[in-house]
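Note to self: user wants both folds in one dump. Writing first protein now.
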Amino acid sequence: SVLLPAMGNHFSHVGGSQDLEKTPRGRGSPPPPPREASLAVRGLLQEL
C-alpha cells in the first residue's frame, strides 16, 4: 500500500498528468511524451 502513494508523489513532483489537471497553468504546456513517463516509472522501480 506504500507503493501507490509513493508513485503518486513521484509523478506529482515531476509534473505528471494528475498534477497538470490540478494546476490550470499546466494546460498551456504540452503533456510529457510517453517515453519520458516510462523512464520515470523505471527510475522509480530501480530506486525501490
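First done. Writing the second protein, which came from a different request thread.
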Amino acid sequence: VVKIGTKYYNWSTAAPMLLAAQAFQKPLPKATVENLLKEKMPKKGGRWWFSWRGRNSSVKVEESKSEWLVLDCTLQEPKHDQIRSGHVSDDLSAPPGDRLKDESSSSDDELRSAKQHCSSSQQDLTLLSPASYISYKKTLRLTSEELKSLQLKDGPNDVVFSVTTQYQGTCRCEGTIYLWNWNDRIVISDIDGTITRSDALGHILPTLGKDWTHQGIAKLYHKVSQNGYKFLYCSARAIGMADMTRGYLHWVNEKGTVLPKGPLLLCPSSVFSALHREVIEKKPEKFKIQCLTDIRNLFFPNKEPFYGAFGNRPNDVYSYKQVGVPINRIFTVNPKGELIQEHAKTNVSSYVRLSEIVDHVFPLLKREHSSDFPCSDTYSQFTFWREQLPMVENQDIQASQN
C-alpha cells in the first residue's frame, strides 16, 4: 500500500502515478486516475447480516493485511510486529534461540529495506505534493506590472474578455477601463432615485421605454464634467443588470445633452438579493462604503479624491460621509425633484437651478479655460474675501429674557 498525499493506493494504482511524476514531472490526468481506481483498486465489500460471514471476512482481511507492507512516506517507521508476521510460520520449527536471532535479523533487514523504499519513494512523491503544484488564485485586482502591460491611455479604454470552450464556443464580455490621474476630482452619483425619479419604478419603467428621469440632471452633470470633474456612478443594483444599467445611462438624452461617461460600479450579488437590499431593506450603504473606500485608496497620496456626491436617501449621505465627501457638497433629491444640500437643509433647490450656478459650486479646475468664476472654491470672493456679517442685537429677545 502506498500513501500519496492523504489517500492510500495499492501498487497497481500507484505505480503509474509515480512513473508519470518521475519521468514527466507531471501528475496523471484526473480521468486516468479515476479509471485506475475503478479497475485496480479493490471494491469495498458490504456488511453481512450473518455473524459467521462477518467473522470469516474479518479473518481474510487480517490475513491480507499481514501480507502487505505499508509504504507511508510521512516518515513513520513500520512496526516490528507487522514485519515479523510474514515470517512467523516459517520459523516455528526452529529452536527458540535461533528463532529469536532470525526474527531480530530479518526484522532489522526488512526495517532497513523499508526505510530505503520510503526514502526513494518520498523523492518521487514530492512531485505529487500540493506544494509543488502551481496554484492560481482568483482575483479582481491587477498588480502595477499587469496594469502597465495593458498600455492604457488617459480616459476610457475598451477591453474585451473572451473565453473559448469546446461545447459553448467563444463567449465575449466587453468592458471599459478608465485611467485617471491621482489628483483628479471625482463626483459620485447614485442612479435609482437620483437620476431616476424613484427606486422601484426606476428599475421597471426605463426598460419599457418610458422616460423616468429627473428634469435638468443631464444638463447639470454635463456642465460639471466640462469644468474638469470625473463622474463615478455607484449603485446597489446587481451586477447582472450591468448591461441594462449601462444602456440606460447612454439612453438618457435631454434636448441633445447626455450624461457624462464614467465607470459604473454595481454590487456583485444576485438580482433578487440586490433588489431586496435596496428597495425593501433600504440598506445599500453596506456595499457603497466598501466599494468607495477601495476607490479612494487608489488615489494615494490624495486622501480626498471625492469632491461632491448626489443621492436620494439618508443612507447615501451616510455612505458619502464615511468616504470623506464634504458635507457642503452632498446633495439629496426627493421624488418631487427638490434638491437639498445637506449642510443647509432648509434651502430647497433643483437640478435646473443648480446648473445655473454650477461654476460657484463646482468651479473650473483648469485656469487656461475661460470661465465666469476663475477662482477656486477655497479662496473665492464669497468664501474667503467676503466681509463678516456684523453682530446685531435683538432687543425683543433681550426684553423677553429680562
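Dump finished. Worth passing along: The two ends are 102 Å apart (CA to CA).
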